[in-house]
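Hey L., structure's done. Input below.
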Amino acid sequence: MFPNPGQQAAQQSARRGAEQSARQAAQDGMRAAQAGARRSHSGRGGGLLSFLLLVAVGVLVARDPELRASVLQFVHHIVNVVQNRTADS
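Output:
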């Protein structure tokens, strides 16, 4: 049985979207970590640790498609919750 070209195209598109979302989430996380490091003068070691942890998570997420999908779903859920709370206030 031959693969369905439409299904392959949809999977490739979904994969590209997930990769783009993962990159964007990683960039947003790095910006937040950098902003937090700038705000805290006494916690410079903690800022570096947070950044290294973020990089490690990014590497793991980039390598595993299933993990990437679940992390992206979680991130989207958190963003929706935050947006709903800010819209209510």
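The chain is about 90% helix and 0% strand. The helical segments are 5-39, 44-63, 65-88.

-- N.
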